[in-house]
Design goal:
elongated, 171 residues
Amino acid sequence: SLATVVEIGDRRRQGLANCYLSNLYWELGEQDKAIAAGREAEAIAETLADDEVERLARRYLGRSYQAIGAYKTALDLLERSLPGDRAISPSGVLIRVFMSACHLELGDFQDGIAFGEETIRLSAGLNSPLSSAAALSALGRIFLRRGEFEGAVVNLERSLQLIEREDIPLL
């Protein structure tokens, strides 16, 4: 628990515990608490120069800022949560999906489409149906909002096919 790691003075685990609390509060819709826990985790990580904890804190912070409509702040945090070497992973694809949603909400359709298409290309190299379905769905929503129904239908149908074939419960 957070109290235990504070008591024993393990700052890294305290940072990680705050990251996980931030994630939990985001899932519960309690964004003020999510942001407070995420900021605490980020501060600890910066003090420790711990890139892993810092990226995780920024990922969770980015999602919370997106949830409250602070899309530019969310984009900045999510961008800084990606690994420095830009290695692709299912987690990296999902970060990019959240970034695509921010571009959508900001009305940056061209950037959103280019970003979404890149995310789909990146996800294709992974053996992660969830990542691919999320990337296709994100791009489909951008096309839909832009009024380009053919692009929306193609991507959303491909996403739905993956969801049904792979029995993905979250989308």
